[in-house]
Structures are given as C-alpha cells and as structure tokens.
TrEMBL record:
Taxonomic lineage of the native organism: Bacteria, Bacillati, Actinomycetota, Actinomycetes, Kitasatosporales
GO molecular function annotation: allantoinase activity; dihydroorotase activity; zinc ion binding
Native source organism of the sequence: Streptomyces triticagri
Family stated for the protein in its record: Belongs to the metallo-dependent hydrolases superfamily. DHOase family. Class I DHOase subfamily.
Cofactor annotation remark: Binds 2 Zn(2+) ions per subunit.
Gene: pyrC
Protein name listed in UniProt: Dihydroorotase
Length: 428
C-alpha cells in the first residue's frame, strides 16, 4: 500500500497541516508528521479540500462521443479537482433503463480518473409521457438515486407528481430542469433589454420560476425530495428561499457561469455564450451569489455541456446550447465567491463537495479531511493567476466562455481513494 504525505497544506483554508495518506485512507492529520516511506507533496500556501463532487455533468457517452466520452470527461474532471461526477441521462440511447445506466457506470469504473454516478431519466426517451424504469435503475449495479430529464423539463404536473412519489420509496430525488416549454418557444437568450435591442427571441425569467413554484408545492404535497437544476434568476432564489422556510425538502444548484457572466455578452453574437438556461442580468448574478453564500442555493454544479466545434462555430440561431465547465469551475468560484468575501474555503468545500454528495446520497465522497476518512482530496494553489487556454483541456470539446480570460487558482493535485489522478497539474 502506498503512502503519500501532503506537507503544509491549509486544510479548508485554515492553519497549515500535514495529511498522511496510507492506501485508500487518510491515516493522520497534524503537524510534523513522519514522512518515512512516503512520497512527499510539498503544499506550502495551497488549500486542501475534500474531493469535489459534481451533481450535473454531461459525459455524452453513449451516442455523442464526438463531443465527449466517459474517459475524456473524467480526465477533465480530475484536472478540475473532481473525484465524483453525476452523469446526466440525455445520451443516445437515453439512460432510461438499467442496461444503459450500468453501461455508463462501468465505463466510469474503467476510466479510473473519478467516480461516475449515472443519473437516470425520469421519463422514457425524455419525452415526458411515461415514467422510465426508476426502480430498476435504482436496483441496478449503478444504484441510481438521482433522476432527471435535464435538457428538457418534466412539464406535465401529473408525471412530475408520480415521479416524486415513486423515488420517495428509496430516498431518491428528482432533479428538475425548470423550463416551461410554451413560454420559451423560439427563445434565444434572456428576455430583457438586451434581447429587445438585438431582436432575439426572449427567454423570460417566469418560464423558470413558474415550474420551480409548481414543483416545490408538489414535493411538499407528497413529502418527497426535489432538486432544482441550474437556478438562474433572482425570482427563483426567492421561491426556493420561501420553500425552505416551510421546511420542505428542496435543494438547488447554481452553475459557475451563472455566477459570473451576464446577458450583455450576447451582444457579441458569439455562440459560446449560448446556454440553457440563458445568461441573465447583473442583478440576477448578484442575487445568485448571495443565495449561494447564505445557503438558499445548496451547491455549485457545472452543467458541463461539451459540443463539437461545428455545433458552436456557426451562427447564433443554429448553435447548440451549453458550455464546458469541469476544468474551470473552481477558479470561477474562487473569483466570484472567495475573493469577494462571500465564502471562505470551508464554505467552498461544503457547496462543492459535502452538500452535493449528501444530495446525491453518494457514499465515500464529501467527507471531512480527517483520519479514517477516504482519501478523496483536492489540492489547489489559490495564488495562481492565468488566462484560460482551452487547447490544454482534457475534455474533447473546447466550448468554454472563458477563453483568454484570466482566472485565479489552479488545481495541482487530485486524489481518488489515495491514488493521484492529477499530480503537479499533470494527469496521472
């Protein structure tokens, strides 16, 4: 069994400590630990976090391997500090059966760069008409606990209610892509001043907010768990805050790009800024940051959405929606939340590791950095500053909105059960 000593790291941003890894487990945390027989990682000035957990990743395999594969996606995850990702169901074929989710789960096991937990579809083919094999997916080797038609909204209230009732039996959760389809027909960007000036079809905030309002009421009615994907408006924040004040079992996520970018960027007509839900206003961005800080929004999730070049390097109206995010997420959170004083590093650990693992009921992840715990760890250099260069990405796709933008922080090491998947910034 190999030993690794991480020397002088600021655990959760606190005082410098040594962390000794022995095999798959953290053996000791303290100062002046014995390095005999151990590989030493010098971590002076770096911050040590529990391995990051993403509740919203698109790995595209099976069916769209031109965009991403489980292998390339998990390599990107390791570079970003993630030790576990939840793979969304909108693959080809859709992950709506035990067979497909097990295929994704096994591909994740084979990759070795991070754990892959499949998300099962709520409805057959993501068509919103008939419940998928929720129980069979849960009982499969993949042990699915999160279900979502992400990319599409479960807009039928009866279907949504039945899904919430069904997953309650095994403490599952339905993750809703909140988008009222009739209100977003022909929509190209956020509905507001910029869309009016550009003459692009508007995507109103109420299209998101109306579905969230309905679903928190449904979740309360059946006493089940609902999770709101990629929340993006100030109004959505207020609805979730109200639902939580009632004690209802509602959680929500925000993406890094919705914490930083606004609809003003669409003036460039660069399709790299086309995303679902769309980039919103500065007021929305500030409301999302405050909500993440006060816990109304529980987690940061990437919504990593890779696309081949031809699907983004085209006119705005024809471009696919989505951005890659696994390799830049922690840097964006540092810029928007840590360096603004809204969160400390312990708060980052909660929003990007502990809470997503808890929502996904993912054992072995999101654990404290203490003796006896699994050695799933992320080491980040917060002093680093550098421009984003997608040419160096491990992801198969390059559709990042941050190309050329200077961002702080860099993940230098990622450990999955004591084994380095990233060492000194290089994939193991």
């Amino acid at each position: 069994m190999s030993k690794i000593l991480i020397r002088g790291a600021k655990v959760l941003g606190g005082e410098a400590q040594d962390v000794l890894i022995d095999g798959e487990t953290i053996a000791a945390v303290g100062t002046g630990l014995d390095a005999s027989g151990a590989q030493v990682v010098e971590a002076d000035g770096k911050v040590l976090l529990p391995g990051l957990v993403d509740l919203h990743t698109h790995l595209r395999e099976p069916g769209r391997e031109d965009s991403e594969t489980v292998l390339t996606g998990t390599k990107a995850a390791a570079r970003g500090g993630w030790t576990a990702v939840h793979a969304m169901a909108n693959t080809f074929p859709v992950a709506d059966t035990a067979g497909v989710v097990e295929q994704v789960w096994r591909l994740g096991k084979e990759s070795g760069y991070c754990d892959v937990q499949p998300i099962g579809a709520v409805t057959v083919g993501l068509e919103g008409k008939q419940l998928a094999e929720l129980g069979a997916m849960h009982d499969s080797a993949a042990g699915v606990r999160v279900f979502s038609d992400d990319g599409k909204c479960v807009d039928d209230a009866v279907i949504m209610r039945r899904a919430l009732e069904y997953v309650k039996a095994f403490d599952g959760v339905v993750a809703q892509h909140a988008q009222e389809p009739r209100l977003t027909e022909g929509a190209q960007m956020n509905e507001g001043l910029v869309s009016a000036e550009l003459g692009l079809g508007g995507w109103p905030a109420v299209a998101e907010e109306s579905i969230i309002a309905r679903d928190v009421l449904l979740a309360a009615h059946v006493d089940s768990r609902v999770h709101i994907c990629h929340l993006s408006t100030a109004g959505s924040v207020e609805i979730v805050r109200w639902a939580k004040s009632k004690g209802w079992n509602v959680t929500a996520e925000v993406t890094p790009h919705h914490l930083l970018l606004t609809d003003e960027l669409v003036r460039s007509y660069n399709p790299v800024y086309k995303v679902n839900p769309p980039l919103r206003t500065e007021a929305d961005v500030l409301a999302l940051r405050e909500a993440l800080a006060d816990g109304t929004i529980d987690i940061v999730a990437t919504d990593h959405a890779p696309h081949p070049r031809e699907d983004k390097d085209c006119e705005w109206a024809a471009a696919a929606m989505g951005m890659v995010g696994l390799e830049t997420a922690l840097s964006v959170v540092q810029a928007t939340m840590v360096e603004t004083g809204l969160l400390d590093w312990a708060g980052v650990a909660d929003r990007m590791s502990l809470a997503p693992a808890r929502i996904g009921r993912l054992a072995g992840h999101g654990r404290p950095v203490s003796a006896g715990e699994p050695a799933n760890l992320t080491l980040v250099d917060p002093a680093y500053r550098g421009a984003v260069d997608p040419a160096g990405f491990a992801s198969r796709s390059r559709n990042t909105p941050y190309e050329g933008r200077e961002l702080p922080g860099r993940v230098t090491h990622t450990f999955l059960r004591g084994r380095a998947t990233l060492m000194d910034g290089n994939l193991a």
